[in-house]
Write a structure and sequence with these properties.
The structure holds two protein chains of two kinds. Chain A is mostly helical. Helices cover 65% and strands 0% of the residues of chain A. Chain B is built from nine helices and three strands, in the order αααααααββααβ. The chains are: A mainly alpha, B mainly alpha. The interface between A and B is medium-sized, with 34 and 35 residues.
Chain lengths: 210, 291
């Protein structure tokens, strides 16, 4: 499993993004009021890179092999686990930056990565070989736009700002996303979690490969 | 040995450019960015500074997202031409056709500029914000055009350069995040860097940066936004030439010469941006309004 992860995950991208995330959070710690958008952008970057760990350019081949999508997803999750470990360390290191809400910021990154993982895994299950090629830029780009423009700050508090921000409703929002992501992931990866329709699923799967 | 390279006539280029424009206009990320820009404009101008800080919206939603849209379009174009089996059109023609597609976000940027000017007059900024003193409306218009309209072209052009020269996986998202990081640091917060910040492709010229004793006081920073508009146009030209230069099948010497000239012009315009207009940080004599 570790060998599969070592060979299939884009480790260069994961490592570069991890370093960039730490730089972003460190800059936020230096100027929290002015640089706050970088906090949301760091969350988006973690999610976008987590998604890219699940692309399988050789899906046409690996989908026919005995190793199931569940096995391969678990193997590739090593990258997400390491990335999130790094994320938590970075948030802890810069914990004075977040107006007393470092836990909430840490939670945002974890949920965002989980949601991205669930979505691309679902797309992989639907037969898309490299879903992150579209999902990853979309997640990062839209997060950048939302973090900088802050259009629906009060009604959808994705990245609350200052100690008086709507942190409680934000945590509720992120927790709801987390639960939905977990349900999606379970539904896709656990065979007994759904009734299979004979018409859907991955067209290239070998019988019994799940 | 004869060396033949594919060529394209004007008609082919026009058809291809039109097709890339349609692809750009239909791209989901462009539509998301456009919707976001429309939404923020529909929410109306700021009660203190009017539409002056709304430039961040097209800058992010059409500029940064445009960078990612363009990378996606380049990959799509490359895949289509690889699938064709033989190279029917040179890379240079395809690059120029993709560059033409920036007309689409630029049109949205122009529409934003129209709204920003209207909002600026409909609900003018408070005297305690900006512009103030000898700095007038032209200064504000130039900033809106450079940051709100030209950024919608600059982002996609940078995407074109990234797609051509950095073909590795994830290059787009890393460049987009790094670009925002560097840009946000170079907004004049670091005082020793204020003078040279105008060399960045996106930078503010004033805001509630505060002074000793009043952390919300508005200031106007150094530089000329009018020259800055020309500087950003020159940067876009440099970007297109850099992307065109990637094609090794075509003669590169004329492109290299044009690139050298464009870089020199951009440098001159950058220096003019820095040395013209306001030459020392101006502090608004009125206390800043509550944020």
């Amino acid at each position: 499993m570790f060998e599969h992860a070592a060979r299939s995950v884009p480790w260069g991208l994961v490592a570069t993004a991890a370093a960039l995330v730490t730089v972003l959070l460190r800059v936020v710690e230096e100027w929290p009021y002015q640089m706050w958008p970088l906090q949301g952008i760091a969350v988006g970057l973690v999610a976008g890179v987590a998604a890219s760990a699940f692309d399988e350019p050789a899906a046409a081949v690996v989908d026919t092999l005995p190793r199931s999508l569940r096995w391969r997803t678990v193997a590739r999750s090593a990258a997400v686990v390491l990335l999130l470990g790094w994320w938590l360390l970075s948030v802890w290191w810069t914990r004075t930056a977040y107006f007393g809400h470092a836990e909430a910021v840490a939670w945002q990154g974890c949920v965002a990565a989980l949601a991205a993982t669930a979505y691309v895994t679902w797309l992989r299950d639907r037969g898309r070989a490299t879903p992150a090629a579209a999902v990853s830029p979309a997640v990062v780009g839209v997060t950048i736009s939302l973090a900088l423009a802050r259009p629906l700050d009060e009604s959808v508090p994705l990245f609350p700002y200052t100690a008086g921000g709507p942190w409680a409703s934000s945590q509720l929002l992120w927790s709801t996303v987390g639960v939905l992501a977990l349900v999606t992931l379970t539904w896709v990866l656990v065979p007994d979690a759904r009734i299979k329709s004979p018409c859907r699923g991955r067209p290239l799967s070998a019988p019994g490969s799940r | 040995m004869t060396h033949t390279t594919p060529t394209a006539d004007t008609g082919t280029f026009t058809v291809l450019a039109r097709r890339e424009m349609v692809h750009y206009a239909k791209h989901p990320l462009f539509l998301v960015g456009l919707a976001l820009t429309v939404l923020v404009c529909a929410m109306g101008p700021d009660k203190n500074s009017s539409s002056q800080f709304h430039v961040i919206v097209p800058g992010a939603a059409l500029g940064v997202l445009g960078l990612l849209v363009m990378i996606s379009l380049v990959r799509r174009s490359d895949r289509a031409f690889e699938a064709a089996g033989t190279v029917v059109l040179p890379e240079r023609t395809r690059t120029l056709a993709l560059a033409s597609a920036t007309v689409v976000p630029f049109t949205a940027g122009i529409a934003f500029f129209g709204w920003a000017i209207w909002a600026y007059h409909d609900q003018p900024p408070l005297p305690s914000t900006m512009p103030f003193g000898d700095v007038g409306d032209t200064w504000a218009y130039a900033i809106m055009f450079a940051l709100g309209t030209l950024s919608t072209v600059g982002g996609p052009v940078l995407g074109l350069v990234v797609a051509r020269w950095l073909p590795f996986r994830g290059a787009g998202i890393l460049v987009a995040v790094a670009l925002v990081l560097v840009t946000i640091v170079m907004q004049g917060l670091v005082e020793p860097l204020r003078f040279v910040r105008v060399f960045m492709p996106w930078t503010y010229f004033g805001g509630p940066l505060g002074v000793e004793g009043d952390p919300e006081r508005w200031v106007i920073m150094t530089g000329s936004p009018v020259w800055y508009c020309l500087y950003v146009v020159a940067l876009c030209l440099v970007g297109v030439l850099l992307a065109v230069l990637h094609d090794r099948e075509q003669a590169r010497t004329p492109v290299l010469r044009a690139l050298a000239v464009a870089v020199a012009v951009a440098l001159v315009l950058g220096v003019l941006t820095m040395t013209q207009g306001v030459q020392a940080t101006m502090v608004n004599p009125l206390p800043g309004p509550p944020l």
